[in-house]
């Protein structure tokens, strides 16, 4: 290479580097500050608890080892959670792709050409060409477009993890709900069998009185109808139990008929757990965190769309060796360095519309974020109100049961003395037996309201979940995927 050529190459490289440094010193586009993010959350909930804030696996307070095992199995085998892991893996790979433009692109190429030409039958020319080289390209992030696209991808990946956490919380609560309802149906079934036995005893006594002319045939028919009425309720209870077992099997990712649940009494709910403050929902609810991360991603997408309207500077370089034979391949070489600026002049308003579209997405996600926060607050208050009034309702129904039993005892006494016919006894018996069955449902509802409260409060235990497949999340992390950005949320 001649001295003049070397000097020209040196100045070209220097000029490109200076231009790159000047470009890098420019201020890139950032998300615009927005007003309207503040939400008027109340300072406290309507109910207060002095218990510490429970963020661990809350279903353990029910005291059932079988329930604990079912929930843990569901968290690892549920198909909705498995699909969420797949979506998370995709999101992390997309985040890597969105950040790839921040690095130079280097490609290699090798060529071989063999040509043969002939002017006439006696003249023939053969030539060969061998070449090997490298080509590099890099877009200088003049306006911050590459950074904005990369940041949006990272936030989408983090939002996908929060979506997975939301699914996990839902699955855990659903498994607890199915287990409680299964136990409730079984207790109802036991009560119905006891009632059938008691009604048959009443029937035998009435038939005995009928044979002794102390009761009418109508009394016998009425009590027989009462026996059949209670027996008719059994198929509905058993059907509901079977359907709940089917739903539980699906939650566990198993075929129908493969789940067995042992009989256990319904547990007494513990004291009201620590609620914290409404503002804690912003950190404890994964759906709120996901919504906030999606909003931040939309902000960065706007910045990328704005930067895309401006010219882009690209640096490129090529280096290659070539020769007519492999032995002389490295005797000849070529090196080139180039810079190009490409910018839109007229695109029919496409890029401007893309900016407007991205801003519309921000408006949509801002509204979604606020709705998610307010919905979370409503769900907590709903669960608190339901548990509060359910406890009062159960207490009132217990008093009603006592009064109904006294009424039944008095009606039986008057019937035995011949002061009344059998209808008051039948009415009182029907009321007592109906209250006995409904009491099981009332106790189950109280537990379901507690489960709904824990689900509404959220928690951090979902952050410890890992995919059941060993190559799921680990591969994504090893490939350079975006880290879980759980600490970031709006509001």
UniProtKB/TrEMBL annotation:
The keyword Plastid does not apply. Residues 1-19 form the signal peptide. Residues 468-491 are annotated as: Disordered. One of its GO terms (molecular function) is efflux transmembrane transporter activity. GO terms for cellular component: plasma membrane. It is a lipid-anchor. Keywords: Lipoprotein, Membrane, Palmitate, Signal, Transmembrane, Transmembrane beta strand. The keyword Ubl conjugation does not apply. It holds the Pfam family OEP. Its main location: membrane. It is found in: Cell membrane. Belongs to the outer membrane factor (OMF) (TC 1.B.17) family. This is Efflux transporter outer membrane subunit. It comes from Pseudodesulfovibrio alkaliphilus.
């Amino acid at each position: 290479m001649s001295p003049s050529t070397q000097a020209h190459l040196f100045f070209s490289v220097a000029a490109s580097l200076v231009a790159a440094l000047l470009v890098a010193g420019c201020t890139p586009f950032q998300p615009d500050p927005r007003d309207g993010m503040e939400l008027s959350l109340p300072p406290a909930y309507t109910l207060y608890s002095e218990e510490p804030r429970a963020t661990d696996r809350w279903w353990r307070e029910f005291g059932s080892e079988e329930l604990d095992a079912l929930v843990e199995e569901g968290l690892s085998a549920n198909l909705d959670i498995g699909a969420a892991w797949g979506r998370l893996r995709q999101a992390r790979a997309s985040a890597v792709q969105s950040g790839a433009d921040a690095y130079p692109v280097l490609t290699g190429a090798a060529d071989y050409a063999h040509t043969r030409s002939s002017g006439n039958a006696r003249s023939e020319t053969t030539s060969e060409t061998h070449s090997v080289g490298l080509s590099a390209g890099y877009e200088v992030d003049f306006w911050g477009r590459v950074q904005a696209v990369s940041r949006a991808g990272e936030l989408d990946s983090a939002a996908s993890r929060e979506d997975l956490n939301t699914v996990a919380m839902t699955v855990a609560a659903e498994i607890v709900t199915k287990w409680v309802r299964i136990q409730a149906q079984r207790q109802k079934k036991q009560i119905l069998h006891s009632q059938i036995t008691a009604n048959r005893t009443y029937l035998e006594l009435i038939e005995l009185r009928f044979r002794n002319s102390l009761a009418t045939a109508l009394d016998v028919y009425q009590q027989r109808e009462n026996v059949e009425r209670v027996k008719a309720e059994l198929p509905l209870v058993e059907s509901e139990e079977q359907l709940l077992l089917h739903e539980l099997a699906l939650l566990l990712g198993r075929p129908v008929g493969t789940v067995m649940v042992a009989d256990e009494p319904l547990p007494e709910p513990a004291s009201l757990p620590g609620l914290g403050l409404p503002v804690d929902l912003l950190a404890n609810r994964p759906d709120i965190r996901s919504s906030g991360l999606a909003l931040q991603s939309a902000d960065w997408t706007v910045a990328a769309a704005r930067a895309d309207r401006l010219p882009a500077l690209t640096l490129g370089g090529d280096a290659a060796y070539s020769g007519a034979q492999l032995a002389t391949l490295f005797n000849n070489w070529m090196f080139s360095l180039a810079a190009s600026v490409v910018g839109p002049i007229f695109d029919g308003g496409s890029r401007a519309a893309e900016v407007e579209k991205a801003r519309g997405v921000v408006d949509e996600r801002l509204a979604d974020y606020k709705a998610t926060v307010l919905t979370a607050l409503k769900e907590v208050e709903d669960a608190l109100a339901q548990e509060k009034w359910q406890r009062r309702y159960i207490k009132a129904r217990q008093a009603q049961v006592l009064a109904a039993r006294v009424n039944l005892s008095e009606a039986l006494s008057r019937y035995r003395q011949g002061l009344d016919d059998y209808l008051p006894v039948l009415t009182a018996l029907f009321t007592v037996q109906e209250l006995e069955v409904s009491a099981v449902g009332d106790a189950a509802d109280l537990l379901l309201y507690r489960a709904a409260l824990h689900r509404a409060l959220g928690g951090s235990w979902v952050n410890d979940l890992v995919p059941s497949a060993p190559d799921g999340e680990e591969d994504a992390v090893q490939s350079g995927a975006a880290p879980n950005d759980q600490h970031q949320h709006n509001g």
